[in-house]
Design brief:
mainly alpha, Serine Threonine Protein Phosphatase 5, Tetratricopeptide repeat, globular
């Protein structure tokens, strides 16, 4: 009787063989591969990358619907970034192609004016996910375009609640400010800060459902830190720390807030507090 360990090894070996064979025969199996679960499709794309089939892979990833599936595999994001950069180095302007496809999709979608709230949400999530991916990859201009399209979607869909619209706008402002901070576009960041903070105050004054604003406030802090206004930076960093709630704040946000706040506390020579924040982030 084969052991459980032997069965797992056999299953893994068969899966590797199937993935390798599918990658080799991709041109014939392309449409069959598109009905596979996302994680298996990504495994085949990874194998194509390893085999040097960059032209085939690049043509496939230029399809926005395909790349949307790739983005849904969150736990393999590092591998997706590696493949994406390899395609860019190969000469394919994948960042421009995908943002252009997104712009076309948004224009066609909004022109129909027969969408449901679910369809609006799905399109907005795609725009934000692509923008975040490009931001993490340091393709700032393309990322900025995605977030600006996100704002267009929010502004031009009147059949949604004002709570939903304001919350989504606050989130998109946060990511767009991250782009400006990362790309050193501080003039635009200051203008966006005024808009974002005014919207946050308006939302809070109307006694709507509470928001977790740790990631928003830490972007405010980063902007002021980068322009040399350290008092404002420390103030917003402290406000961001106060927003951290173990049940509602993501691990990524907690790490980012602690990391940036510790840097800002150093400007006040609060070394012990900065050290504690770094230890907490680690």
């Amino acid at each position: 009787m084969p052991t459980a360990h032997a069965n797992r090894r056999l299953h893994s070996s068969l899966l590797d063989c199937a993935v390798s064979s599918s990658a080799t025969s991709f041109s014939r199996l392309k449409w069959a591969i598109r009905v596979l679960p996302p994680h298996l499709r990504l495994a085949i794309y990874e194998k194509m990358h390893d085999q040097g089939r960059l032209c085939q892979l690049g043509y496939e990833w230029c399809d926005l619907e395909v790349f949307e599936v790739v983005l849904s595999v969150k736990h393999r994001r590092y591998q997706v970034h590696q493949i994406f950069q390899a395609l860019m180095d190969h000469g394919l302007r994948l960042n421009e192609v995908l943002t252009s496809c997104l712009h076309t999709k948004c224009s066609q979608f909004l022109a129909e004016k027969r969408w449901t709230v679910k369809e609006v949400t799905n399109l907005l999530n795609l725009s934000i996910d692509l923008g975040r991916f490009l931001l993490d990859a340091s393709w700032y201009v393309a990322s900025q375009r995605c977030f600006q399209l996100s704002l267009t979607i929010i502004d031009e869909t009147p059949n949604v609640s004002s709570d939903w619209r304001d919350w989504q706008r606050i989130q998109v402002y946060h990511w767009l400010m991250d782009v400006y901070n990362s790309n050193c576009v501080y003039k635009d960041a200051l203008v966006l800060y005024e808009r974002s903070w005014a919207l946050v105050k308006k939302y809070s004054e109307q006694k709507r459902p509470p928001l977790n604003l740790a990631d928003v406030f830490i972007q405010y802090a980063l902007m002021f830190f980068n322009v040399g206004d350290y008092d404002q930076a420390v103030g917003w960093a402290v406000d961001a720390l106060k927003q951290i709630d173990g049940g509602r704040t993501s691990i990524r946000t907690v790490i980012e807030v602690c990391r940036h706040a510790s840097k800002m506390l150093l400007t006040r020579r609060q070394f012990k507090q900065a050290e504690l924040l770094v230890q907490h982030a680690v």
